[in-house]
Amino acid sequence: IEILVFANMNCIYSSRDIEQACKTDIRFMWLLQGEPAPDHSTFARFQNEKLVGVIEDLFYQLILKLHELGEIEFNNIFIDGTKIEANANRYTFVWAKTIEKNLQKLNAKINLELPELSQKYGLSETASLADVIEFLLKARDLLGIQFVYGKGKHKTELQRDYDRIYEYLERMERYRESQAIRGTRKSYSKTDLDATFMRMKEDHMKNGQLKPAYNVQIGVECEYIVGIGLFSNPTDTTTLIPFLERLRKNIGRKYRNIIADAGYASEENYTYLEENEQNAYIKPADYEIRKTRKYKNNIYRVENLSYNEIGDFFTCPNGKRLNHAYDGKRKTENGYEAVKSYYICENCEGCPHREKCYKGKYENRKVSFSKTMARQKAEATERITADEGNILRENRSIQVEGAFGVLKQNRDFRRFLTRGKAKTETQFMLLAFAFNINKLHNRTIAKRLGLELFNQEAA
User: Fold this and answer.
1) What are the tens digits of pLDDT across the range 353-407?
2) Does the global pTM surpass 0.85?
3) Regarding beta strands 279-282 and 306-308, do their DSSP bridges make them parallel or antiparallel, or are they unpaired?
4) Who has the most CB within 10 Å: 33, 262, 323, 393?
């Protein structure tokens, strides 16, 4: 473990390179204390088999040790994510839409041919593919027919029917297996089944080509990586809650302030933090656009319409009321139920604002509005624009984005060397372990121990 961590501290990630360092680098020789240099396969087995189940506990032991040293207070956590390429072939993609389309075509073909075969051999109309195959095999044995394969061999009609149905059954099982592997994802890679094809900033084809990758989430406090999570979904929104739950399980406590960018803004995430009594310093998704002149001057946006809380209705620029019509509910992937209220204008006939107001198919304008989300966005905006919020947002850019900059640019870690989520996560935790030890050393040398936040300097 010492050698692996020290290798990661020095940007050596390959097991073969680590083996070579043990033979030629005096620092690694000192760590071996006279023992012979292990083989590269020994390092690979140790990391991919021995460490997989225990590295998370070791990592959080280091975090608790940093807390004992006074470096971490479990106060402010800065969260962000990045996409790191998986160790998978870039062109072994399986797309969800392709699976579904091919499955529909196959089902249509089976529904067309199966009744004809059932009638041909006197089987029940409800006979399945397996039933037909079983009957054909029995008929082969009864008639003493020998199935033949290869060039120049003449197949009987019974064998042709059997081969065709057997192929359908194999394809059906293959498509169902692919659906089980991908789960709720839109794609996966054949060479790393846990990797999903995502749009990356490093585009090798220069044409928006997707690459197999993992969405790596980290939490940073006082410049140290204190939380890690690898996800197969490319968006950050749905990763926040499982990331925080896993973090709380490992450290046994909750952070007071959660600081993240607009990619994590959602009603579900805001509600979760409210229920757990944690302060959400998360910029609303439309925060930047709301500051523009075009947004403020657009009197037709639902956010700019006059709202009457007592009567629960909006008033449009033409003076007409948009009355509450009904509430719609939508469940997220994690089971959270979001409620939206829908309002319909009493009468849009002959309105001079009709063309500018909306281009919907309804005769009268219909708008949706989430009261919960509106309140949460207002509270989040108030928090992030306060003095403390400004300092925390500035530190988010410095600390968590700085950590990713060090890992990807300075340490040149842009692609995993292992396959499968468990092994890949183990590799990244080793990297984060090494990062934290380096950070502790650098802060000690620079006499910055105990420094939690970078304060904005006056111009």
Assistant:
1) 888 888 877 688 999 989 999 999 999 999 999 999 999 999 999 999 999 999 9
2) yes
3) unpaired
4) 393
